Amino acid sequence: IRFKAAFLQDAILSLAITKTLFDEVNYDLINAFKLDNHRQEEYVDNQKRLWVNDSKATNVDATIQAIKTYEDRFIRLILGGEDKGADLEPLFELLADTNVHLYHIGANLEKVSHLAGKYEVAMTDSKTLENAVNQINQERDAKDVALLSPAAASFDQFNSYKHRGEEFFRFVKSI
Fold first, then answer.
1. pTM (whole model) above 0.70
2. Which residue of 65, 84, 136, 165 has the smallest Cβ count within 10 Å?
3. Domains and CATH numbers, the chain
């Protein structure tokens, strides 16, 4: 089964239900399934570096799952936006034990900055998505993963999570 950790459980559950109801398992069919855009959507640039658009991750749990998917690599995480009062503490508890550098964008700078300090997580105040992409481009190692998984809504700087994700790839492809 060719699914990353965040979606593997759903794929296995789908296979189990199909096996139970119809007594068949079709690995080719499940492996042909394509996730929607903006959900851990991977792009490898011409320098063979991985950039991941997880702009749909507008809540803490989705961002935690994305981090767990790539936790075997150094993560350059673009985080922030309008968090609507969400508790970000569980996210920072995970980040404290993860090889990560945060690049903050959006409205919740004060909250994210406070938690980054409390949990000793390295952070850059990038302000905008374009700045974050450019900073990551300058600082990253080829083995790092650049992950846009904001744990927040986009409406402080973008029309929608789709717009944010499209802009992310536009900035990445313009490097």
1. yes
2. 84
3. 1-34 (no CATH), 35-173 (3.90.190.20)
